Amino acid sequence: MTKEKTAEEQCNEACEANERIQEQLKFSKIKVKAVKLTGEINIPELNPKSMLSVKPQLLTAKEMLEHLGYPAGGLVPNWKEVFLRKMDEMLKKYRSVKLYMDICVKCGACVDKCHYYLGTGDPLNMPVARQELMRKVYRRYFTLPGKLFGSRFVNGSDLSEELLVMWYTYFYQCSECRRCSVFCPYGIDTAEITMAAREILNSVGIVQKYLHEIIFKAQVIGNNLGMQQNAIVNALEFVQDELQEETGLDIKVPIDVEGAEVLFVTPSADFFASPHIESLYGYAKVFHQAGISWTMSTHASEGGNFGLFIHNYEHMKKINKRIWEAARALKVKRVVGGECGHMWRVLSSYSNTMWGPFDYLDQKYKRPQHICELTNDLLNRGALKIDKSANEEFIVTMHDSCQVARGMELGGMPNGQFEIPRAVIRGVCEKFVEMPADTIKERTFCCGAGQGLLGDDMMATRVKGAMPRMQAYHYAKRESGVNFVALICAICKAQLSKMFPEYGVAMEEVGGIHQLVGRAIVLGAKESV
Amino acid sequence: MRTIECAGKKIELDEDGYLTNLNDWSEDLAKMLSKEDNLDLTEPHWEVINFLRSYYQQYQIAPMIKILVKEIKKTMGADKGNTKYLYQLFPDGPAKQACRYAGLPKPTGCV
Predict the structure, then answer these.
(1) Residue ranges per domain, chain B?
(2) If you classify domain B26-101 with CATH, what class do you get?
(3) Alpha-carbon dihedral A496, A424, A400, A265, rounded to 10 degrees
(4) Measured between beta carbons, which residues in chain A are less than 8 angstroms from residue B16?
(5) Rounded to two decimals, what is the model's pTM?
(6) For a 10 Å CB count at each end of chain B, is N or C smaller?
(7) How close A157 gets to chain B, by Cα (Å)?
C-alpha cells in the first residue's frame, strides 16, 4: 500500500492518516457488464480481491454529519480507541452479535448462498469471510487469549488502516438480506454483523453517503426523497386528478384528513418514481372501492426507515416516531403500510417497542397492517369486484423482497408473508408461475441493491448482485413465458427496473402487486364490506 | 468532485456530475454537460429542462415522472407524452440525466 506524505508541513500524524484513508476510500466509477442469461445459477470460480476497488461514496456534508452525530472531518485522530469502544458497546448492546462472533464453526454452508459472492466470485463476499472481518478483530481485542498473546496467536487482526478499507469495502457489499442465515445451521445472521460494522465505521468518521443522506432527510424533512409538504400535496393532487379523469369517479387521494379510519404510510418513492407510482393508483382504488376512509400524512410522508440498515435505534426511533405522531394527531383507528420491504420489518416488528403501546388505536388493529393483508381480506370477503381479464396479457411471477420474506410475519398467519401477497396476485391475475424453489420465499435472492446499496455509485455491485435473481427470472420466462414480476418493495422496484434493461429485458416487466390490483379492480357501484 | 470551466467561471460538480451550487447553472453549462455525454440538446430537450427548472423553483424537487409526461404531452403532443419518448431524449433516465443538465440535485431515496 502506498503511503505518500503530503507536502503540507503543518499536517500532523492524524491528519496524514485521514488523508490516506480518504485517498484509499475515494470513489471511482467502475463499469461492469451484465453476464448473459442462461437460467442457471452456477457457483463461480474464485476471483480474489476482484471487488476490492468497489466502494461507495463517502458523506462529506458537514451539516448532515453533525446532525446525525458522526464526526464531520473524516477519520478521527484517536480512531483505534473510538473503534474499540464502539465495538465493545455494540457487543454488549446486541448480544446476538456477540453470540455470532463466538459460535461459527466454519462449516461452509453459507459460502455459496450470497448473491454478491455468486455474482462476483470474490471470496470476501462469502458470508463467513465477511463475518470473519469482524471476528478477527473480536478475537484479537475481546477474547482473553487475544488480549494476552496478540493477533497471531488467535488468527486475529490488529487495527490498521488497511482493515478500515476492507471493512468499508465489504460491509458495503452486503445487502443485509439474510439469505445466508437461512442456511446457517446456527442461524448466524450476517446482516446483524454488517449493521454493527457500519455503525462502528460511522463512529470513527467513515460514513457512507447514500444511506446516511437519506436518514438525514427522513429525519429533517420527513421523507427519503426530501420532498417538502407542498411537493407532496402537488403530487398527490395530481394522482387524484388523474384517477378521476381516468375513471370518471370521485376517487380521493386524501392527505392530512383528521378522523380518517386508516393512516396509510408508504415509501416516498411511491409519490415520485416509476413503476412505484402505479401501485399508489392501486391503493387508492382499493380504499375507494372498499369504502374505507383513509389518509396519508405530510408529517409521516415516509414508510421506509434506513435507520435499520445500521442498527442505530436512535435514528430508527426518530424516523418511526413521525408515523405514530401522525396517527395520534389524525385520530385514526389503524395504520396500514404500503409496498416497502424494510418498512414492513420496522413497522411490524419494532414499532411497538419503540413507541407503543398503541392504546389509542382500534384494539382490533393493535399492530400495523400490510396493504396486501387488507386487500386480501377484501378479496376473500368478496368485497372487491375483480376483472382478471384486465391483466390477461401478463404471466406473472413474484419476487419475494428479502426484508419481508425474512422479516417477521404478515397477516398473523404462518408464512403469511409468502402466501398473502401471492393470494392477492392470484386474486387479480389468471396466470401465476413461480420462479425456481431455491430462489423464492425464505430462500429468495436479494434484488442486489438492498439496505443502502441502491446508489448509482454502487452500479458494479448492483449489476453483479442482481445476477441470481435475473437468472431465475430468465428461467421462468423461458420455461413458462413469464413477462411480469410483481413485488412489494420500493428498493426492489427501482433496482430491478434498472437492471432488467442491463440484462436485456424490458423495464416494464417490473411492477408492484397493487399495480396489478389497480388494473383489475372494477370500480363503480359500491359492494358491501 | 471536479470543476469545469464555463464562460470563464470555474464551476464545481459533485462525484456524479451534479452541480454543487445550484445557482451556477446556465444554458451554456447544460450544453457542456450534455456534450460530455455526446448528446446534442434539441428543442424537446430544452422543453424538459425548462419545465424541470420551473417546477423545481416552486417545489424544491423534481416532478414525479407522470407530471413530466403530462406536461410534455400538453406542450409537444399526445404521441410524445410517454415515458419511452423521455428515455429516447435522455437515455440514462429523465429523472437523473435531465435533472443533471437542468442543474437540479440528484434525487435520493428508493428511486
Answers:
(1) 26-101
(2) mainly alpha
(3) 70
(4) 456-457
(5) 0.95
(6) N
(7) 33
- In this prediction, what percent of chain A has a pLDDT beyond 70? 97
Q: How close B60 gets to chain A, by Cα (Å)?
A: 7
Catalytic, B99? Answer: no
Q: pLDDT for A418-462, tens place per residue?
A: 999 999 999 999 999 999 999 999 999 999 999 999 999 999 999
Mutate to test the interface with A, among B37, B64, B74, B106 (most CBs of A within 10 A): B64
CA distance A209 to B97: 20
Grid look-up 446516511 returns A212
CA distance A126 to A117: 6
Summarize pLDDT for A458-505 with one digit per residue, the tens.
999 999 999 999 999 999 999 999 999 999 999 999 999 999 999 999
Half-sphere exposure of A66 (CA within 13 A, CB side): 4
3-state secondary structure string, A40-101? CCCCCCCCCCCCCCCCCCECCCHHHHHHHCCCCCCCCCCHHHHHHHHHHHHHHHCHHHHHHH
Q: What is the pLDDT of residue A5?
A: 58
Q: Could you give the CA distance from residue A189 to residue A195 in angstroms, rounded to a whole number?
A: 10
- How confident is the model at residue A527, as a pLDDT? 47
Q: Averaged over A358-363, what is the pLDDT?
A: 95
Per-residue pLDDT band at B2 (split at 50, 70, 90): confident
Q: Residue A298 gets which letter from DSSP?
A: S
Q: Which residues of B touch A268 (CB under 8 A)?
A: 109
